[in-house]
Each structure stands twice: as structure tokens, then as C-alpha cells.
Design brief:
This protein is an alpha/beta fold and 172 residues long. It is built from 8 helices and 6 strands, in the order H-E-H-E-H-E-H-H-E-H-E-H-E-H. Helices cover 45% and strands 20% of the residues. The protein has a 6-stranded parallel sheet, with helices on both faces. Helix 1 packs parallel to helix 7 and helix 4 runs parallel beside helix 6. The mean pLDDT is 91.
């Protein structure tokens, strides 16, 4: 049985994604590793999430499709540059692993986790989400079609129910 991250990797290949931008993230680690071992995808590690937006614009201008992988806590870093997607009218796809949803242990994650969909929508980004493994492939495929065929900025929120709740410390 395929893991949902393998399904995302397949969708990226199906949509001819050539560049993947990311910061370290446990929720995306399996997908990042798959992209790093691919002969057709170039991965670029970022120092901060907003670097991925102008890189995506440049990739598009150069005839390539890209995706930005990040965690919800990094969305706030991108908001100022998110306006480029509308101003420059280029397609943009981002996959966001969510934190700060019910069950989160880290109180610091709640504000941005709760604000992520609202902030993205305020910037004109279409927001889709998946919280079940069986919905991931279709949701990411629809998002990629909306971005690259429809010329939209699109975010897929990979909900905490899907990725699991992080825990630190002793397990009971």
C-alpha cells in the first residue's frame, strides 16, 4: 500500500514538476527524500520559506513548474512575497503541513496554525485541504491543475489528522 507522501510524489511527476523548494520539515521528509533521489526533480533547501516564491516565479519564467513545501508555522514568513503571485500573474503551488490544530502540544503553533487558511485566502490564494490519506492524491492533483492549467496560486493544507500529532518526551 502506498503512503500518501508517495502519492504526492507521483502527482508531482505527473505534472512535470522540475523544482522543489523546502525547509526541513518532518511532515514532508519522506517526500523531500523522494524528490532528492529523483533524476527529474531538482530540490533546493531554503533558509526561510519566502525564498521559494521568487524562485517559483523564476522557474515559471524559465519554462519549469515548481512547488514549495513548508509547515504552517512558515506561512507567516511568506505573506509579503505572496503578493507576487497576483502582481506577476504566475502559477504557484505550495503544500503545507499543518501544526496548531486540535491535539497540538506546542501552544506556540496554535496562532499560525489557526491563521494559515485565513491569511492565505486574504492574499488571494486558493486553499484546499486533505485530512485523510485517501484524499491526498486527488486533492494535490486538483491543486496542481488549478495552479498550472488555471494560472492560480494554490495551497494544499495537509492537516494534522493526516500527518499525525508531534510529541516530545516520554510515551505512555
Amino acid at each position: 500500500m502506498n503512503d500518501w507522501r508517495d502519492d504526492i510524489f507521483q502527482v508531482l511527476q505527473d505534472h512535470d514538476i522540475k523544482q522543489v523548494y523546502h525547509v526541513p520539515d518532518a511532515g514532508h521528509s519522506r517526500l523531500i527524500e523522494a524528490c532528492q533521489t529523483s533524476n527529474s526533480i531538482r530540490t533546493i533547501a531554503l533558509t526561510t520559506e519566502e525564498e521559494g516564491i521568487p524562485l517559483a516565479a523564476g522557474a515559471w519564467l524559465g519554462g519549469q513548474r515548481s512547488v514549495l513545501l513548508m509547515q504552517s508555522s512558515g506561512v507567516g514568513n511568506t505573506i509579503n512575497l505572496m503578493g507576487l503571485t497576483k502582481t506577476l500573474r504566475f502559477p504557484f503551488l505550495t503544500l503545507i503541513t499543518m501544526r496548531g490544530e486540535p491535539g497540538e502540544f506546542n501552544s506556540w503553533q496554535y496562532p499560525m496554525g489557526q491563521g494559515t487558511p485565513k491569511v492565505l485566502e486574504a492574499m488571494g490564494v486558493l486553499v484546499m485541504s486533505a485530512d485523510k490519506a485517501e484524499d491526498v492524491k486527488t486533492t494535490v492533483d486538483h491543486a496542481a491543475r488549478s495552479a498550472f492549467n488555471g494560472g492560480q496560486a494554490v495551497a494544499v493544507l495537509l492537516r494534522q489528522k493526516l500527518i499525525g500529532i508531534k510529541t516530545f518526551g516520554k510515551k505512555n
